[in-house]
Specification:
It is built from eight helices and eleven strands. The protein is of the alpha/beta class. The protein has two domains: about 1-120, Rossmann fold, CATH 3.40.50; about 125-220, Arc Repressor Mutant, subunit A, CATH 1.10.10.10. It has a five-stranded parallel β-sheet with strand order 2-1-3-4-5, with helices on both faces. Strands 6-7-8-9 form a four-stranded antiparallel β-sheet, with helices on one face. It has a two-stranded antiparallel ribbon with strand order 10-11. Helix 2 runs parallel beside helix 3 (about 60-65) and helix 6 (about 155-165) crosses helix 8 (about 190-205).
């Protein structure tokens, strides 16, 4: 899953980014409102953590701008030191899904993030399954039958995207957008190499689903009846 963190305080922004990345998320960070709005136009996110006190604009303006981007349905948690009732009501009325006062504990933020992702609908389904392959999105656990499968964070993110769209084809550009932050340099063959590693691991683990490469189109995860071991 991919998150956008909009926070102008450098130490908190860095702390949030590193903590969420350790939890398996791909994270983009913005330090002001204009940067956040540009990112909302460029990439697709699963949730946004938004500070209200940005240096160039009110965070509520970012929330309003979200509606005219590809992220119009993006769940949002406001993170702010503004603790008045009027501020909380304004944030929720503007479309935020939750409101968390600073300072906050990371376990509470994680719990609230899980809650808004669960409420987001089908794209946040708890368990993704195809054949004997099961992916538990909150715990990031993968089972082949009843046997656990160990994958890197990037391999987990790739498997999640392929399972979400199975059996449809997922284009390379979409995978690059979902698996890498905007600040990361992606080499031309990065996706191909990642797909190859995951394909080998699925086969070695005994998965009855496999990754197909459709030249010039992209990749898809095919179920037991169609799986190809390329």
């Amino acid at each position: 899953m991919k998150l956008l963190v909009v926070e102008d305080h450098p130490s908190l922004r860095d702390l949030l980014s590193k903590h969420l990345q350790r939890g398996g998320f791909v994270v983009d960070v913005a330090e002001h409102g204009q940067q956040a709005m540009a990112m909302l136009r460029l990439s697709r996110y699963d949730a946004m953590l938004l500070d209200l006190g940005l240096p160039d604009m009110d965070g509520l303006s970012v929330l309003a701008a979200r509606n005219s981007t590809r992220n119009s349905d993006l769940p949002c948690i406001i993170l702010t030191a503004y603790d008045s009732l009027d501020h909380r009501v304004a944030g929720l009325d503007a479309g935020a899904d939750d409101y968390l006062l600073k300072p906050f504990a990371m376990p509470e933020l994680e719990a609230r993030l899980r809650a808004v992702l669960r409420r987001a609908g089908p794209r946040s389904e708890k368990c993704l399954q195809l054949g004997n392959l099961s992916f538990f999105r909150e715990s990031r656990d993968v089972l082949v039958g009843t046997r656990p499968m160990l994958l890197s964070k990037r391999e987990l993110a790739l498997l999640e995207e392929l399972l979400r769209h199975a059996p449809r084809v997922v284009v390379k550009d979409h995978l690059e957008d979902r698996l890498y932050s905007l600040s990361e340099a992606v080499t031309p063959n990065a996706i191909e190499a990642l797909v190859s590693r995951l394909r080998r691991k699925l086969a070695a683990a005994g998965a009855d689903s496999g990754i197909e490469t459709l030249r010039g189109l992209g990749y898809r995860l095919a179920g037991p009846a169609q799986a190809l071991r390329n």
